[in-house]
Every structure is written in C-alpha cells, then in structure tokens.
C-alpha cells in the first residue's frame, strides 16, 4: 500500500480501511517524534531514501502522530471492550440476586447444617449455627463406611425423596457458573484503563490546534466518539457500582469475610457445588437403575427356579397317580376273576377229535349200556 494512502487513512480517520492490527503495527514500529522531525528535513531527497525512511518522511507531516494513532486504536477497540465488560457485570449482578433470593438454596443450606450437626453430635462442632459456604464442596469428601457413597449422594437422595422443591436451586442459580469466570480485579483494571484513555483523549482534544490539512478529520470524529464513549463508560461505572453493592450484601447475608473471599472464589465454590449436586443426582439415578435391573434379574431367576420346581413336582405327582392307577386296575381284575370263577377254569386249549372216532365211541357206549337189558329179558 502506498505510504501516501496510509497517511490519508490516518488523517481522515477512515474506519472502513483502518483496522486494529494495522494501527497496532504502526504504533509498534513508528519512530520517535524526534526521529520523525529529523527525517522531515530530507523531504527533498525522498527518492534517495530507503523505504523505512521514505515512510518516516511521509508520516512526519502528520501532527501529533503517536497520540493520534493511540486514540484511533482506542476508538476501534472501545465497543469491544464494552461488550466484554457488560456481560461480566450483568452475570455477577444476576448471580448475587439468585443466591440471595433463592428459597430452595436457603432450604438446602438448612439441610446441610442439620446433617452436619447430626454427624458432629457430641463433638465441639455440635449445634453449630452456620457454616462457611466454601465448605459446601467438602460434603463430597465424607464417605460411607463401605466407601461406596458419599454424604453428597445421601443429601441428594434425601432431597429427591423428602424435599423435591430443594432441587430447584440448581435452576435458580443459573448465572453462578458465568459469574465464577469473572475477575473483579480485572474488571476494575479495565474500567480504570478506560477512564485514563478517556481523560487523555479529552485533554488532547482540548489542546488540539486547528489542522492545516482540510482533510484532517481527527478532531471532528474523535470529539463525537469521546461523547459517546463517555456516556457508555458512565453506564458501566453505575453497573459496576451496583454489582459491588449486591456482592457486599451477599457477603453480609451469608457472613462471608470479604477480605478472604473474592467474587470469583465465592461463585466458583457455588458453581462447583451445583455441578457436583447435579452429578450426584445422575449417579443416584444410575444406581437405582442398576439396582432395579438386578432386582428384576433376581426376580426372573427366582421365577424360573420356582416354575422349574413346580414342573418337577407336577411330574412326580403325575407319576405317582399313574402308579396308583396301575395297582388299582390289577386288583380290580383279580377280584372280578374270583367272583366269576374264571380264575378256576382250565384255560388250556382242547384238541378236537376226528369225526369217525367219535361215532365208534358212541356205538360202543350204546352197546355197553344195552347189554344188561337183553340179559334181563332172557332171564
């Protein structure tokens, strides 16, 4: 790009052509003002100069070049800075409001305190009136005797079974995760830096002399930018002040030492506990599913064994009935044979005699029986 074109964009504050990387490179590699003033003397020997020197000669004619570039860069970055700061402030404000007003979260803290006093019965910590919010995450560290579950899982189970409304605190504390990534220290630094830049721009505009170049639009455009930036900065300051007030109210309400707990630390603890509680609910659900599957498997196995046993018993009874029927049938047949006399009959098969032999036998019998009769007549 020709050096004269770069000079034109800077003088006219051409935001359509100027970009943050371009301005940053110019500021980074720009010679000091003394060097620029020295290079300006070689304007008539321009063609004999090296490219860096030629660039210096062209840019040396721009009054107060370095401050001008810094303010242009601030103008280009200002909207992005506002868009970065505003969501952070709003997130902390929303999180403070949620923690302070959530009835479900308050009930949860009551249950945690009750469990703690019950477990600490007889010790010096018994009957405590409160506890530090930072100790909420330690509930997961207390495990059962078999090391299979934790106090957090028990707390989640109690909430599910006895106090289902308490679980709503997970939804109530919607912004604590976003607020946990906000650094109050970085917020304050950014706002202070923004204020210094605005003050410097205001002073430079007050001392900025009438430009010799009619195309020089720095004063006109930067004056408008300053007015708009000052207004947006004022709104950010008010929002930040409200954030600090809300945060202090939360610390006082939960008796948290502001010197020991920062914004990110408080909301990090709450965000972590919220995530752990949600995870405990899921793990409890999976555990119930596993136990239910095991219960159904045991029931199915017991049913199969019971049906098998019933089939075996039914088979044995059937065999016993058949055996009894066989014995009863034999006895009935024997009694019937005795009563009819069939049991005493000769069931041997007789061989039939020839027909002629039977006739001879009959004649012989007749002769033998008739002989005595004839003898009596003769006598």
TrEMBL record:
Q: Which Pfam families match?
A: Drf_DAD, FH2
Note the InterPro entries from the entry.
Answer: DAD_dom, Drf_DAD, FH2_Formin, FH2_Formin_sf
- According to the record, the signal peptide region is none
Offer a single GO CC term for the protein.
actin filament
A GO BP term, please?
A: actin filament polymerization
Locate the compositionally biased regions of type Basic and acidic residues: 285-310
Q: Which residues form the FH2 domain?
A: 1-303
Specify where the region named Disordered lies, as residue ranges. 285-323
Q: Which domain of life is it from?
A: Eukaryota
- This protein's name: Diaphanous-related formin 3
Segments forming domain DAD: 326-356
């Amino acid at each position: 790009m020709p050096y004269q074109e770069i000079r034109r964009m800077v003088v006219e504050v051409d935001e359509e052509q100027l970009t943050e990387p371009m301005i940053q490179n110019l500021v980074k590699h720009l010679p000091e003002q003394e060097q620029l003033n020295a290079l300006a003397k070689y304007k008539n020997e321009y063609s004999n100069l090296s490219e860096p020197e030629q660039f210096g000669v062209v840019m040396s004619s721009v009054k107060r070049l370095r401050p001008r570039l810094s303010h242009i860069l601030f103008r280009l970055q200002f909207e992005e800075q506002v868009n970065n700061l505003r969501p952070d402030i709003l997130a902390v404000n929303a999180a403070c409001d949620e923690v302070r007003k959530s009835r479900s979260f308050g009930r949860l803290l009551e249950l945690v305190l009750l469990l703690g006093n019950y477990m600490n019965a007889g010790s010096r910590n018994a009957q405590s009136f409160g506890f530090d919010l930072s100790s909420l995450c330690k509930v997961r560290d207390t495990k059962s005797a078999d090391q299979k579950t934790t106090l957090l899982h028990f707390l989640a189970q109690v909430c599910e079974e006895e106090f289902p409304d308490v679980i709503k605190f997970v939804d109530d504390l919607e912004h604590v995760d976003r607020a946990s990534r906000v650094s109050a220290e970085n917020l304050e630094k950014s706002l202070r830096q923004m204020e210094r830049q605005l003050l410097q721009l205001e002073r430079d505009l007050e001392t900025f002399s009438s430009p010799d170049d009619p195309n020089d639009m720095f004063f006109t455009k930067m004056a408008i930018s300053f007015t708009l930036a000052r207004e947006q900065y004022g709104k950010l300051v008010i929002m930040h002040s409200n954030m600090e007030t809300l945060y202090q109210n939360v610390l006082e309400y939960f008796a948290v030492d502001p010197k020991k707990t920062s914004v990110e630390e408080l909301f990090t603890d709450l965000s972590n506990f919220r995530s752990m509680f949600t995870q405990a609910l899921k793990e409890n659900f999976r555990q119930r599913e596993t136990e239910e599957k095991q219960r159904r498997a045991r029931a199915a196995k017991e049913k199969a064994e019971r049906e098998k046993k019933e089939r075996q018993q039914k088979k044995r009874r059937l065999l016993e009935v058949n055996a009894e029927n066989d014995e009863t049938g034999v006895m009935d047949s024997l009694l019937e044979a005795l009563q009819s006399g069939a049991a005493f009959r000769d069931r041997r098969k007789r061989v039939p005699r020839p027909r002629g032999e039977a006739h001879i036998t009959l004649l012989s019998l007749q002769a033998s029986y008739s002989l005595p009769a004839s003898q009596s007549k003769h006598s």
